[in-house]
Amino acid sequence: MKTLLTGATGLVGANLAHLLCEQGERPRLLVRERSDRRGLRGLRYEEVLGDVLDADSLREAMKGVGRVYHVAGIVRFDPFTREDVSRINAQGTRNVLEAARAAAVRRVVVVSSVAAVGHGTLAEPATEDSGYNYAGDNPYHESKREAERLALAASGPGLEVLAGNPSFVLGPYDVKPSTGELLLLVAKGIVAAYPSGGINVVNAQDVARGLKLIMEKGRPGERYILGGENLTFRELLTLCAEEVGVTPPRLPLPDEVVKVVGKVGDVVGRLSPDLFKHVNTTFTQALPLPAYQSSAKAMRELGYQPRPVRLGIREALRWFQEEGMLPRDRPLTPRGVVG
C-alpha cells in the first residue's frame, strides 16, 4: 500500500520518513521545490513537487495512495503571521482531507499538537479529554485546534481520520532549525536564565513511532497525545547543557520580566516579525505555566513507549554537529547517563 507523507522536510516529517524507509517502505513525499532536503539525505523515496495549498498537486500526489500522514504545517506565535498560519495549518488540512477522500484514500493521520489539547499540572496532566485552557489569543493554537476539528469531523465511512498530538519535539533532521534552536542557544552558552514553568518534551524519533502506531492501531476519529517527559524549564535546560557540556542556567527568570519582554516584542516585532517570532506576549505568556500532558492513552491503546528525552537531545546535537551547525572541532562531552 502506497504511503504519502506531507511535511517530510520538517523535524517530525523527516524522522517519520526515516522510520518508514528503515522499515522497508518507499514512501511518496510531497515536497515544495525550495524546501531544504538535508534531513532526507540517503533515503529512498518517491518525490512529488507540490504544496498543501495547491489542490492540483495534492490530486497528483494522492494517486494510488492508501494512507496519508499529514505532517505539513507552520509553527508561529506572533500575531503578524496569523493569516499565513491559519491558511497553512487549517486550510492546508482541509485541502489534504478533500483530496484524500476524492482519491479513495483509506486512512489519514493528521499531525496536530498538544497546543490543541490544553495543559495540566504534574499532579493532573492534561489528557485527550481535557478542555482547552490556554489563555489569550494564540494564532498557532487556534489554527491547530481548527485543523484538528476538521480532521476528526471528516472521519467516517470511506475515510478514517485520526490525530496525533506531539508535545515539544527535539531530535535530529531539524534543518530550519525549529525547536532545535533552543539547543543551539544552550550550546553557545548564552542561556543564563530559566522561566518558572514547564512543558512536556518528547524525542522526534518516538513521535515518528507513535504516528505509525496510530496509523496501524488507532481508533478512527480519535486523537492521541504523543509526549515524553514532563519537565520544568530548568530541568530541560539542564539536560541540554549536560549533553553539550556547558554550565546549566542558574538564574530564575521572574514572571514579571517575562511579561515585559513579551510586551517589548509586541512593539519591536512589527519591524521584524521573523527576528521576534518567539518574543511576544502570545508566546511568552505560556512560559510561567505548568504545561504538562499525559500519553497514557497512546501507551495503553497503541503500545506507545517514549524513551528518555536525553536521547533525543543527544541525537539532535550529533546531527547539528555533522551538518556544521555546531563546531565540528569541539567534541560534545555529555555528562548525563541514560538509565
Automatic annotation (TrEMBL):
Pfam families: Epimerase. InterPro entries: Epimerase_deHydtase, NAD(P)-bd_dom_sf, NAD(P)-dependent_oxidoreduct. Residues 4-227 form the NAD-dependent epimerase/dehydratase domain. This is NAD-dependent epimerase/dehydratase family protein. It comes from Archangium lansingense.
